[in-house]
Amino acid sequence: MSVDNLLPLELIDKCVGSQIWILMNGGKEFVGTLIGFDDYVNMVLEDVTEIDLNSTRTKLPKILLNGNNICMMVPGGDGTWVEAEE
Amino acid sequence: MSTNGDSPEEFKGDSRDPSGFLSEIIGAPVTVKLNSGIIYKGDLQSVDGYMNIALERCEEVSEGKVIRRWGDAFVRGNNVTYISADSS
Question: How many CB atoms lie within 10 A of CB B66?
Answer without folding.
Answer: 10
